[in-house]
Design goal:
The complex is a heterodimer of chains A (485) and B (237). Chain A has 485 residues and is α+β, with helices and mostly antiparallel strands. Chain A folds into 3 domains: 132 residues, PAS domain (Beta-Lactamase), CATH 3.30.450; 84 residues, Orthogonal Bundle (Helix Hairpins); 173 residues, Heat Shock Protein 90 (2-Layer Sandwich), CATH 3.30.565. In chain A, 50% of the residues lie in helices and 18% in strands. In chain A, a hairpin with a 2-residue loop joins strand 3 and strand 4. Chain A is rod-shaped. The C terminus of chain A is likely disordered. With 237 residues, chain B is of the alpha/beta class. Chain B folds into 2 domains: 121 residues, Response regulator (Rossmann fold); 97 residues, Winged helix-like DNA-binding domain superfamily/Winged helix DNA-binding domain (Arc Repressor Mutant, subunit A, Orthogonal Bundle). Chain B contains 8 helices and 12 strands. A 5-stranded parallel beta sheet of chain B has the order 2-1-3-4-5, sandwiched between helices. In chain B, helix 2 packs parallel to helix 3. The two termini of chain B are 24 Å apart. Classes of the chains: A alpha+beta (485), B alpha/beta (237).
């Protein structure tokens, strides 16, 4: 920067100097011509004219006769410095001005004319000095301004950057201290910092989910394993206190084994939920035909349903695209839903499993005609171990629906519990596009019709129809496509 | 609980470092009429298994010295084809796949019922003897019950039996394991490809449906329930 300014200064000054020199040279040549053409008198006229009152004060002329003194010009005497006959010189000249006496620097050249006359042509360098000062001043100020601006800009930029880095550090520290809900503030510009904040926030969200999953897992372990284990221990202790009795001891053993199995089942469910929630199984997602999965699960439960006097039907759309799924977990989720439905649907009721393509997503619906779940309880039942009072009598760990919720999250599916009027309607909405990219093939399928193209009634009865419950809540309703990422 | 007494005696090698678990398994195997040797670490287990004198191996996945899957891999490289049942605390689908890929024949997640282990071991040991020809069979017979796999037809005592596709597969599985105890989880795996236990005992209902079709109206029931273990399709002796 300084170098640039220096260069500008020096080159400007050099140009001015060159111009001054050239002007003086030209004038001397011109005056010498005049002398040659018009003689001394002519030269005197010209010099007088050029140095007269009306002429520029910047020009200095002197025509000197060594014998008689000044002949013409605006300089009082031949400068003592000028000894040579033809030379460049610099004269300090005192000029009277309004502010008093001012010293001016004159750049001049002397010239010897034929006949012994001497000619001096000069230019006041005052203007040049002024100009030089202006340049120096300008350059200095611009330099100062640039420096100041750069400094300020740099400071504010670094303060901004450091501020945001500090924000990240602060957030990370709070999270390390245990407040997992902390997130980095998001700026309004979509710059690198915002992108970094987005990634880190996603990471923090994942950590929070894992941590809360872990906390829930430990809570759940305490809640649902401590109870059965305590009972189991009590049963053993009781049997040991009592007098030995082969028959009674055997009974105790059978009961204890049952309790141990129940505890193990709960434990197994908790592990599955933890695995689904940690997202570990997400690496095993493969394109899967939801319809086939639903039909298999329905077929597995159909005899149980029939035994209870409930009609179980599967309606699947053969045009429904595959979804990215972990078959094992999803099958477990669907059987859990069917298990619930079968347990809660009274005799004479019906359960419908339905897989239907809708826009860019595939819907898996399990709808029953049981008592359903009150709207106020629907969110609660997805939590672990929540078993509504009215279902306490039915067996189950209370983990069924929370596993469904965890599996839905793992698959990026939305889970909705709605009223089937009467009954419960559970809807899992999968994004079909995920599977397509996963499969790595641009699979072109015909746009599936909103109506089920094929019905696969599991239960073959003469009067078998595919109608839904009275509420017909299960019917495909034209909905605007949802943005499912 | 009285375990099923099996008709043939198996020589089992148990490679398991948990002494208590090993004792429990050996006791159970011995009481069921089998012979069980025990190795407490990978290298010892491998050395014993290389003798090849066993009907089946039970290999724990996590072993000191050399992990279970490596033991199996070496055995397979050495062309020892003894069937292997892997025991593991790791129950994810990917874990099971890795275990079977290493050369295991079946995978059992801890904790398990002893009856489950026994049923699976027996199935493995039996299959090892007559693998190829059994798999290729297109005609199965248990007592007077016959299944033609090509025509998808089932006949008992000259009477045709109509079966739904899944019932057919269920019966086929039972007939291929005729005379053996088949557990509910084995059926879920073999017939439905479900490696988890649905909460309700759905299998029992499927079995009773099948039973109604193949045993109803016949003097000798073929499909028996083995208490505390599972089912057994057996020709009357």
């Amino acid at each position: 920067m300084l170098a640039i300014f220096g260069f500008i200064y020096w080159s400007t000054v050099a140009v001015i100097d060159r111009q001054t020199t050239a002007t003086i040279e030209a004038e001397i040549v011109g005056l010498a011509e005049q002398y040659k053409e018009r003689g001394l008198a002519g030269l005197i006229d010209v010099v007088r004219e050029r140095s007269g009152e009306s002429a520029s004060r910047n020009s200095v002329y002197l025509l000197w006769d060594p014998a008689r003194g000044p002949l013409a010009g605006n300089l009082a005497a031949w400068p003592t410095k000028a000894t040579g006959l033809s030379e460049w010189l610099s004269i300090d000249l005192t000029r009277r001005e309004e502010g008093g006496q001012v010293l001016h620097e004159i750049r001049a050249r002397t010239f010897e004319l034929a006949g012994g006359y001497r000619l001096l042509v000069g230019r006041d360098m005052h203007e040049r000095a002024k100009f030089r000062r202006t340049i120096v001043d300008t350059l200095t100020w611009s330099l100062a301004a640039a420096l100041a601006l750069g400094l300020l800009g740099g400071m504010s930029l670094s303060r901004r950057i450091l501020g945001r880095v500090d924000d990240v550090t602060r957030t990370a520290r709070r999270i390390m201290q245990g407040d997992f809900s902390q997130r980095i503030r998001h700026g309004d510009s979509a710059d690198e910092f915002d992108r970094l904040a987005d990634s880190l926030n996603a990471l923090f969200a994942q950590i929070e989910r894992l941590m809360s999953g872990m906390r829930l897992a430990t809570d759940s372990l305490a809640h649902d394993l401590r109870g059965p284990l305590t009972r189991l221990r009590g049963r053993i202790e009781l049997a040991l206190i009592a007098a030995p009795d082969a028959v009674r001891d055997r009974e105790a053993l059978v009961s204890v084994l049952g309790q141990a199995d129940a505890a193990l089942t709960t434990f197994e469910s908790l592990l599955k939920i933890a695995a689904a929630e940690s997202g570990i199984a997400a690496t095993e997602l493969k394109p899967l035909d939801l319809g086939a999965l639903a039909r298999d699960a329905a077929e597995l439960y159909e005899p149980v349903a029939e035994e209870r006097g409930v009609r179980l039907t599967a309606v699947t759309d053969p045009g429904a695209p595959h979804v990215a799924a972990q078959r094992e977990l999803l099958a477990q989720a669907v059987t859990n839903l069917l298990d619930n439905a079968v347990k809660h649907t009274p005799a004479g009721g019906q359960i419908v499993v339905r897989v239907v393509a809708e826009g860019g997503s595939v819907l898996l619906v399990v709808a029953d005609s049981g008592p359903g779940i009150a709207a106020s309880d629907r969110a609660r039942v997805l939590e672990r171990f929540v078993r509504l009072e009215e279902s306490r009598s039915t067996p189950g760990s209370g983990l069924g629906l929370s596993l469904v919720a965890a599996v839905a999250r793992l698959h990026g599916a939305t889970l909705d519990l709605t009223d089937n009027a009467p009954g419960l309607r559970v809807e899992l909405r999968f994004s079909a596009a995920v599977a397509r990219t996963l499969a790595g093939e641009a699979e072109q399928r015909p746009v599936p019709s909103p109506l089920p193209g094929a019905a696969a009634p599991i239960h073959v009865r003469p009067r078998g129809s595919l109608a839904f419950g009275p509420g017909s809540g299960g019917g495909p309703s034209p909905r605007p496509p949802r943005d499912d990422r | 609980m009285p375990f099923q007494v099996y008709r043939f005696r198996m020589r089992i090698l148990l490679i398991e470092d948990d002494q208590e678990n090993a004792d429990y398994l050996r006791k159970g195997l011995t009481e069921s009429g089998h012979v069980a040797d025990h190795a407490a670490n990978g290298p010892d287990g491998l050395a014993q298994a290389l003798d090849g004198r066993y009907d089946a191996l039970i290999v724990d996945r996590m072993l000191p010295g050399m992990d279970g899957l490596s033991v199996i891999r070496v055995l397979r490289e050495e062309k020892v084809a003894t069937p292997v049942l892997i025991l593991s605390a790791l129950g994810q689908v990917s874990d099971r796949v890795r275990g079977l890929r290493a050369g295991g024949d079946d995978y059992l997640v801890k904790p398990f019922a002893f009856s489950e282990l026994l049923a699976r071991l027996e199935a493995l040991a039996r299959r090892a003897g007559s693998d190829a020809e059994l798999e290729a069979q297109t005609h199965l017979r248990t007592g007077d019950l016959e299944m033609d796999l090509l025509r998808r037809a089932v006949v008992r005592g000259g009477r045709a039996i109509e079966l739904q596709p899944r019932e057919f597969r269920l019966l086929e599985f039972l007939m291929r394991h005729a005379g053996q105890v088949v557990t509910r989880t084995m059926l879920l795996e073999g017939v439905w490809d479900y490696h988890f236990d649905p909460q309700t005992n759905v299998i029992d209902v499927h079995i009773s449906r099948l039973r109604a079709k193949i045993d109803k109206g016949f003097d000798e029931p073929l499909l028996q329930t083995v208490r505390g273990a599972g089912y057994c399709l057996r020709a009357p002796t």
